[in-house]
Design a protein that fits this description.
TIM Barrel; 2 domains; binds pyridoxal-5'-phosphate; alpha/beta; Lyase, Ornithine Decarboxylase, Chain A, domain 1; 8-stranded parallel beta barrel
Length: 436
Amino acid sequence: MTTNTTQSVLDINPTDHVAHLSSLDYVNNHLTMEQVNLTKVAEQFGTPTYIYSKNAILQAYQAYDKAFGAVEHQICYAVKANSNLAVLQLLAQAGAGFDLVTGGELARVLKAGGDPSKIVFSGLGKTESDIETALNAQIACFNVESESELHRISKVAQRLGKTAPISLRVNPDVDAKTHPYISTGLKENKFGVSHDDALRVYKIAKDLPNLEIVGIDCHIGSQLTEVQPFVDALDKVIELIHQLKQQDIVLKHIDLGGGLGVRYTNETPVAVADFANALLPKLQDLGLKVYLEPGRSIVANAGVLLTKVDILKPTEHKNFAVVDGAMNDLIRPTLYESVMAVIPTNLSNAKNIDKKQWDIVGTICETGDFLAKNRVLSLSEGDVLAITGAGAYGFTMSSNYNSRPRACELLVDGENVHFIRERETVESLWEREQML
Ligand SMILES: *Cc1c(COP(=O)(O)O)cnc(C)c1O
């Protein structure tokens, strides 16, 4: 794996790059999302700004829905990837269910009109109050991650006189071959119940009051580009399903989690249709309802972060382009060593300027505050850059570090731009603070 200091030099051809992205194009040298000119968006709404394509989100969702058409299935969008109410509403209206990991996400989905009967609730630390809200809302399933959590859910369900539908998140111990921070299916990870222990924990669930065992689930990691780890995980889970049957524990569904990767620069992730085709024969044999929990692959390439070049600072050793976006807006490059494409919104600006190798950095007082390293670009101060693939784990991971108001979020629909989150004001940052 490349490390921060040795990120290789990247010279991305902007027109070739957008050819892989359904919502982006260059029209008369200007980057457009659907029918909207992104240089103009930057002028009108300011920067940094997140902007998403409605069409790209719906297309990505529908690709999953169609690919798994041969089996009874429910696509549960993983809310943590991008939890803006408008994005959730869009997906809810398209028929999506939702995968949650907190009570906060549950509240968001209900607010956005999500159908509770299509909600699965994952996460290591569901509180009694989260469980109560979810039981009252009548969600489809709790994806349980520990023995202790089973007892907690049983207790709350007894108190409310309800039955909690549950599934155990099993840890199939397969190597997702992704970044260690986003690999979740290995024995040493904190998630789920180990494959060896699953049978024992299922038996406990069977004996606890007010629980109904409905399924089994796994989620092995994120940004997986190959299909083999998914197939290996499925085989492990199927093995367990057969063992459970021998104990008279009969399931209704299998949930394979999310994790399918996307193309950020030059990755070649397996296409959704091929992913489905690799799993479908085994799933059809099983005859269970299939749940999937994709997050990144639904929204990542539907979004870009627009940021303006504020100051160019060439030095003896390195050239820095200081932009108005920073690690508080987009932490993926520094948290996961992610390499995301940076392309200009106006290609004609670049024509008369020499190409140089730039580090694209923010103004935050951290060496880790960079958005990209060693990029070959022709830059001038005032240029607007688009960081693509920013629709997932972009805004949702943003913060107010260095008292930076968070960016605004926009949604493009054809030629229309909808405001879906206002830019924060500096004053709003201390709204909940009190001086002595
Ligand atoms: C994060 C997460 C997902 C979504 O993962 P992506 O890589 O964004 O598809 C799905 N299920 C669970 C349990 C998760 O934690």
